[in-house]
Structure of Olfactory receptor:
Amino acid sequence: MGGVLYNSSGLPTFTLTGLPGLESSQRWMFLLLGPLYMVSIVGNGLILFIVKGEQSLHQPMYYFLSLLSVNDLGVSFSTLPTVLATFCFHLRKISFDSCMAQMFFIHFFPLIESGVLLVMSFDRYVAICNPLHYTTILTDSRVVRMGLWAIIRSFCMIFPLPFLLKRLPFCKANVLSHAYCLYPDLIHLPCGDITINNIFGLFIVMSTFSLDSALILFSYVLILRSVLAIASREERLKTLNMCVSHLCAVLIFYVPKIGVSMTARYGRHAPRYVHTVMSLLYLFVPPVLNPVIYSVKTKEIRRRLGKMIVGTKF
């Protein structure tokens, strides 16, 4: 019990960790992470600004893209305070309530992203397989309902997590493996029975990420079947090109997610910096690359960016 830190409310205080073994060089790490935050915040902010200001982009696909950008901003702002404090100012202590709040948002936004990627796959399915009824199927009210579904589902799934942790006794040193609070990291710290926590965590993964990825895969099977029925090779490529941005967004979200899950489950004896790097990839790659991919692959956004930056069309 001597290594446990408690605040005045009797709740434990957690110690954040940067890169294990590189504590003396952690300020330099922010020279890498700082530009990534800037790309994420500026890039996603530009996407929102362009979609709002360009009347031709007021379509379901771009509404979903806007929700994806808001979500990516949420991911970046969720980790920024403690990453900045840990790497730049060596402020490594975080209270229980602050840690629970950060953990909630860190897991809340990726779960929304999974739902948004799912509804975006439905958008691509309708656009390719049933284009004549696209506007009647994806009405504004239906788009709003689909967005609200992704948000409400995420809230209902993540809301119990802080309470499931708060009921447990903490009697260890309470040193976290990252510069932010992650649920898989936190559940290894309590001294009590974490069976319910593990079961609920598995339920969240199976009923959201696993189900969403399976439905996305199924939608692309249907899309591919429709595309292969097109006689012209040029038309097939043109149709498939409509899905490239979304496919890239799916890959850069799920590949790091799978990597983090595999490392947490099977890499317990791996060096601690491996877990840190995998979590950084999971939390930084989608917010940084999503606006880049959509800016490069979407002609309307690229044209507006060209006007903003150099005053000419691309």
The first strand starts at residue 14 and ends at 15. The longest helix spans residues 96-129. Confidence is low (pLDDT under 50) at residues 1-5.
